[in-house]
Amino acid sequence: MNHTRWARIAFLVTVAIKGIDGIIETILGLFIALVGPDKLLMLVLRFTVPELHNNPANRVAEAVQSGAAKLTTIGTFAIVYLLVHGILKAGIAVDLLRGKRWIFVPAILILSGFVLFLGYRTVQHWSAWSCSLALFDLFTVMLVINEWRQTHAQR
After folding, report:
1. How many CA atoms lie within 13 A of 97 on its CB side?
2. Which of helix, strand or coil describes residue 83?
3. How far apart are alpha carbons 12 and 15 in whole angstroms?
4. Mapping DSSP to helix (H, G, I), strand (E, B) and coil, where does residue 58 land?
5. Phi, psi torsion values for 57, nearest 5 degrees
6. pLDDT tens figures, 83-92
7. DSSP category for residue 101
8. Under a CB-based contact definition with an 8 Å cutoff, are residues 91 and 98 in contact?
9. Which of 10, 95, 110, 132 has a 20 to 30 Å separation from 58 between CA atoms?
């Protein structure tokens, strides 16, 4: 298989992953908005407190509890972020996968904004997770640029 074919497959897979992630973020944002961060924390505590009592070294339960607790302090920001980020990613992915040519430039700009935001957050508060997401978004931007160039070369 040639380089162009591999790049096309990587583009399709990466954009599909972005689309699925966008749908999940949108659903999560709606769920948190409907339930409310405080009620979500109570639900999380109901399941994690007994687990941590039985297994104090359970890092997953600790992380879920910590995340839910932080969500109560940044609830509105988290909801807006998840909804805007999720809807944008899902919409971009759908239009890219449908071959809409007009979406390339907005997609590159929006995804580059995500890279800059995550890069800034990573520099401010180091997180391997944020760094990984920023790098994945950067990889996605490079694939979108490559696909845009390939599309224009075919015309």
Report:
1. 17
2. helix
3. 5
4. coil
5. -95, 10
6. 999 999 999 9
7. G
8. no
9. 132
